[in-house]
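Reviewers asked in the last cycle whether our approach scales beyond single polypeptides. To address this, we selected a multi-component target totalling 700 residues and predicted its structure end to end. The input consisted of the following lines:
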Amino acid sequence: MAFYDRAFDALGLREWCDGGATGGPMTMAELLARSRGEAAGDAPFSLPFPSLDNLHDACGAIPRTRDFTAAIEDGFLAAKDAIKVVLDPLTQPLSWALDGALELFTWIPWWILIPLLVLATWGASKSRGVTLFVALSFLFLGFVDHLDVAIQTLAIIFVCTTLCVLLGVPVGIAMSKRRGLRGSLTPVLDLLQTLPTFVYLIPLIFLFSVTESKLYGIAIILYAIVPVIRLTDLGIRLVDPAVTEAADAFGMTPGQKLWKVELPLALPNIMAGINQTIMMSLAMVVIASLVSAPGLGVLVLRGIRNLELGVGLLAGVGIVLLAVMLDRASKAALERVDRSEGNA
Amino acid sequence: MNAMTETVPHAREGETLIRVKGLYKIFGDDPEAMMGHVRAGMGKDELQERYGHVLGLQDIDIDMKAGEITVVMGLSGSGKSTLIRHLNLLVEPTAGVVEVDGTDVTTLSVEELRRMRRERMSMVFQKFALLPHRTVVQNAAMPLEVQGVPVAEREAEARRWLDRVGLGGYAESWPNQLSGGQQQRVGIARALTSNADIMLMDEAFSALDPLIRTDMQDLLLELQAELHKTIVFITHDLDEALKLADHLVILNDGAIAQQGEPQEILLNPADSYVEDFVRDINRARVLRVASVMDPHDPALAVAGTVEASERLEAVIAKAGGDTSLAFQVEEEGRPVGTLHMRDLVRALVPREPEGG
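The resulting structure, written as structure tokens, was:
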């Protein structure tokens, strides 16, 4: 690193560098280099990238990259308590809802639960094929002893999707009405959608205990809420302007316009958003098994960790069945909405 | 029930109900700042080029009388749709006054404006603007629903008007099951159900086939003979304008080119723009005897009598094409004038541009 040594000398910063030298523990790279006897005397014209580590070698006052990551961690930990004071009570109901739903769904005996779910499918989709498929899938899952875990997964999806809709639809409506809000929320939504799913978990693990259900609940909701917000916003903005003008011309209040005109006409788009939200919660609930979310994901994880191929694959098939069931049922419901609006 | 169906115009028939005075509309980032330039005489093109603002309407003065059909006619881009939206303040004026019954609508509070839109004004749209998720009768009942009328009452009223516009059997249909003409009948029924005395019609028939359009015009005239609403009708079709108008306003590029009684405009166009417009009209079908007759001359030998309100077309048929005849013109059985066939024939030819 002779080049940067000379550079700091030439700038007359030598004194500042040595004065602020932190020393600090040796990095693994330094240790390896020293053990190979390459500590000093590299080529005179070598020009390493001016990274934090390389500059630190020449000038002790400059922090290394690992000091930098440590600072991020310290900063986060320092803020953690303050964040927790606000977030904990706010998110506590989520834990209750998840725990309650898990308990309720697993408490109901199978001979009530399966008919109930099949009936619900029929009610939502009014499609014989979909209903039959759902019934057979549940019977299969029960037959291979995966019903309980599948129901756990379903319970989590149920709670998280409901919350996504309850929170996402109003946010979507607000976005469609206020250009400024849309401008500031769009990058946040982009971020939530592009952030790798594992990255969500990192700050959450620090904030909440892994024993708390809300940890994975928050991860799932953050990940899955995006489509319902986006499509509510889009659906309302796509409502024929001639129709909203008519609503104004006949003296509707903004509330009447929303409930009687905009929401009904945006419903197909909102339903498409809910379908996406359900599918994304399913994707996330599997990954969330890393942070103690119960359900089929746990078995997949076991398959990976213990190389139990059969266990992992069977659980995978269960997830696919759940995914197809949820997708078909919600799409059939969406089609029904479309038809009743006379768009078919 | 009866009180609901009866139209009670606040201004008496023939009196001015809607007065538009010195109305300007400028589109752009800072329209108020542009008013100075416009008042100083800057034209539309210069304003667009130098300041990037669009002059939508300039210095519009119109008096619309209660119980009459005022037709605003102009080509696309002439600002006619913008103008009609000023009347119920769907568009706010940059400067000027829009008075309904002597009240400037721009001074109304949100609540008062909403009440005016509910109770005084109904609107019919070019693209019908029906709610696709509601049946025909629910659509027609919408104005009363907005006012909070109970469902049984408002749907009974809606059905009555659907019957009146010839859609009695379609009450439970969905809008997309109807043809364009039928959908617009629903639009008209919806406007009538609101029981407002002012009806704004924004190119209401422009999206319809010519034959259907004629039917709808006849329907409107028939309804108007019965209901005496104050109708403001926007169109780009001069034939339609002449057929419907009691008072005709011709817009050109956001300014009024000419306004007045349609026959008068046809016979005395104010400028070359209006002249170009009226040139291709079938005058025999539009002009009436009263517009071309001479004062009554009892000494003249006449071939027969004609009504003052008769169209020239009918008189030509009566004369068998003979241009040497003269007729006595009567109104309610009294002689009011004399019509020479050669005056009639002359009136059929558009006036040549002066000096052209």
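The CA atoms of residues 299 and 338 of chain B lie 10 Å apart. We regard this as preliminary and will revisit it once experimental data from Aim 1 are available.
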